[in-house]
């Protein structure tokens, strides 16, 4: 898939996370509910209040007409849980009734779930092939890494920075990172080429300071 590079990534930690209001169990429940919400085709499977900001490729979309409003099961998915950023990121492959590959960030706060931001790729996007993505990802190991073999949060950020900065293509503006140390996983979401550029996403598996897998998400601009 087409890739973008990052010169420097900055992770902003929400106040809620700084106050210790995000637990791994709470965020894992959000991730589980998101998978159910996609299955149901209803955002109301998620712990949302009266208002939720739902965006696809940075554009505001109705929860009834967006991908989340279309009942579908993930043929494959991986969940990143990041208590440090008070955020969950789920990448999933949908094969039917319509194929998609999506990467969704869900931001949690003391008020509950208020922001859902998806990078959505589908037929017609650069090098899109949901079946191939599913087949490849299903053979990969995205499981929990033993505690004694895990990279630190800082080490994961450093490895992600170095790897993405070395890729050809437009730089990624306003990058948002979701880091799950237990899986050695870093999800990056941003704009290619500048603040108004198209959405781009990467989900990286990092082991021993080296990127083992890179799932690129590049919707049509």
In terms of topology, how is this protein built?
Layout (H helix, E strand, L loop, with lengths): L14 H4 L5 H17 L7 E9 L2 E2 L15 E7 L4 E8 L5 E10 L2 E11 L7 H9 L14 H13 L6 E9 L4 E8 L6 E9 L2 E8 L4
Parallel strand pairs: 1-6
Antiparallel strand pairs: 1-2, 3-4, 4-5, 5-6, 7-8, 8-9, 9-10
Structure summary, number of beta strands: 10
Q: Radius of gyration from the CA trace?
A: 16 Å
Total helices: the number is 4
Strand content: 35-45%
Note the gap between the termini.
14 Å
How much helicity do the residues have?
10-25%
Extract low-pLDDT stretches.
1-20
Which structural class fits the helix and strand makeup?
Answer: alpha+beta
Average the pLDDT over all residues and give the rounded result.
Answer: 89
Q: How are the strands of the biggest sheet laid out side by side? A: 2-1-6-5-4-3
What does the overall shape look like? globular
């Amino acid at each position: 898939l087409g890739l973008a590079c990052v010169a420097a990534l900055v992770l902003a930690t929400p106040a809620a996370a700084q106050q210790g209001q995000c637990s791994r169990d709470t965020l894992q429940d959000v991730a589980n509910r998101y998978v159910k919400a996609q299955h149901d085709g209803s955002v109301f499977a998620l712990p949302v209040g009266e208002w939720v900001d739902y965006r696809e490729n940075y554009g505001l979309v109705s929860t009834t007409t967006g991908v989340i409003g279309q009942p579908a099961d993930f043929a494959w998915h991986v969940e990143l849980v990041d208590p440090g950023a008070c955020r969950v990121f789920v990448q999933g492959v949908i094969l039917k009734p319509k194929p998609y590959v999506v990467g969704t960030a869900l931001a949690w706060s003391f008020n509950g779930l208020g922001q859902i931001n998806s990078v959505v790729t589908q037929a017609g996007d650069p090098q899109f092939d949901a079946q191939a993505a599913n087949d490849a990802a299903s053979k990969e190991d995205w499981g929990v890494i033993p505690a004694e073999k895990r990279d630190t949060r800082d080490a994961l950020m450093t490895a992600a920075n170095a790897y993405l900065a070395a890729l050809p293509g437009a730089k990624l503006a306003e990058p948002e990172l979701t880091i799950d140390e237990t899986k050695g996983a870093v999800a990056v979401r941003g704009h290619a080429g500048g603040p108004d550029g198209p959405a781009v996403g990467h989900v990286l598996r990092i082991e021993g300071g080296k990127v083992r897998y890179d799932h690129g998400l590049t919707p049509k601009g």
